[in-house]
Amino acid sequence: MLSEYPLFDSHMHIIDKRFPLVSNNGYSPPEFDCKEYLKRMSSYQLCGGVIVSGSFQAFDQSYLTEALKNLGSKFVGVTQLPASVSDEEILRLNILGVRAIRFNLKRGGSEEVKHLSSMAARVHEIANWHVELYVDSKEIKDLYSTIIGLPSVSIDHMGLSKSGFKLLTQLAEKGVRVKATGFSRVDFKITTALKSLYLANPKALMFGSDLPSTRAPHPYSNDDFMLVAETLDKGAAMKVFSENAIEFYKPTIS
Q1: What is the DSSP string of 30-43?
Q2: Backbone torsions φ then ψ of 229, nearest 5 degrees
Q3: How large is the average pLDDT for residues 27-35?
Q4: What is the pLDDT of residue 253?
Q5: Can you tell me the distance from the alpha carbon of 97 to that of 74, in angstroms, rounded to the nearest whole number?
Q6: How confident is the model at residue 129 (pLDDT cuts 50, 70, 90)?
Q7: pLDDT band at residue 118, thresholds of 50, 70 and 90?
Q8: Which domain holds residue 178?
Q9: Is 12 part of any domain?
């Protein structure tokens, strides 16, 4: 079953201790390099994926540059940048395969939220990037109008909280992408959430492994993939496992 569907892994982390790491709230992640990632995913029909910068990587680009080089053009990057970043640096990273900037409102390590709208508009104009938000959906109410005004955006881990899920669904209806990732991080029933979000917008959901599941209550399991496959019909599963993310990130798929 794992190899039945092509998988474009929309959310995973590469942690290479040859490059700078920043302890975040006393947490330092274990190493998880490109070889370990590919070994873990060897039983999948992996057709690419998204390397996401974590709070513990802050504004470092060296690890991401190396990971994109090692994994190849089927993989893209989501980085964290300061508001002072130059246009030239954005364009350089774009050539290397970066496709979005991340605002980590849950853990920190990224730029402050006051720069969200201006940076989202800027990177979209310069390189057609989108913004990714690691935000608890119970905090979406205060950010709703800001999020709706962004050129292009996705939200990690299905928003985490049941209390904000209705607003998350409304955002999906309006075109915001939502990552079906980090299942052990959420406080609601996964199957119900998958059905609701897919019904709200068939293009919204994008599945990701969240490997190596840093700070998650439970690490990623193949059962997470199977749960999606068993919850949605085959056409819907194809969209969630690969088609939606490929359309959104536009990697080089040969």
Answers
A1: PPB-HHHHHHHTTT
A2: -60, -35
A3: 94
A4: 62
A5: 9
A6: very high
A7: very high
A8: 6-249
A9: yes
**Residues 43-56 pLDDT 10s:** 999 999 999 999 99
Q: Kindly tell me the burial class for residue 86, based on how many C-beta atoms sit within 10 Å of its own C-beta (0-12, 13-18, 19 or more).
A: exposed
pLDDT at 86 over 70: yes
32, 220 in Cβ contact below 8 A?
no
With respect to residue 254, please indicate whether it lies within any of the assigned structural domains: no
How far is Cα 47 from Cα 36, in angstroms, rounded to an integer?
A: 17
**In contact, 80 and 109? CB cutoff 8 Å:** yes
Question: Quick check: 16 and 31 in contact, CB under 8 A?
Answer: yes
Query: Residue 27 pairs with which residues in a beta bridge?
Result: 24
Q: Are strands 45-52 and 6-12 parallel, antiparallel or unpaired?
A: parallel
How many residues are recorded in the chain? Answer: 254
Residues 165/109/53/223 CA torsion (nearest 10 deg): -40
> Could you give the dihedral angle defined by the CA atoms of residues 31, 6, 53 and 197, in that order, rounded to the nearest 10 degrees?
-130
Q: What's the whole-number mean pLDDT along residues 163-186?
A: 97
Q: pTM of this prediction? A: 0.96
| Total domain count, the chain | 1
CATH of the domain at 221: 3.20.20.140
Give the percent of the chain with pLDDT over 70. 98
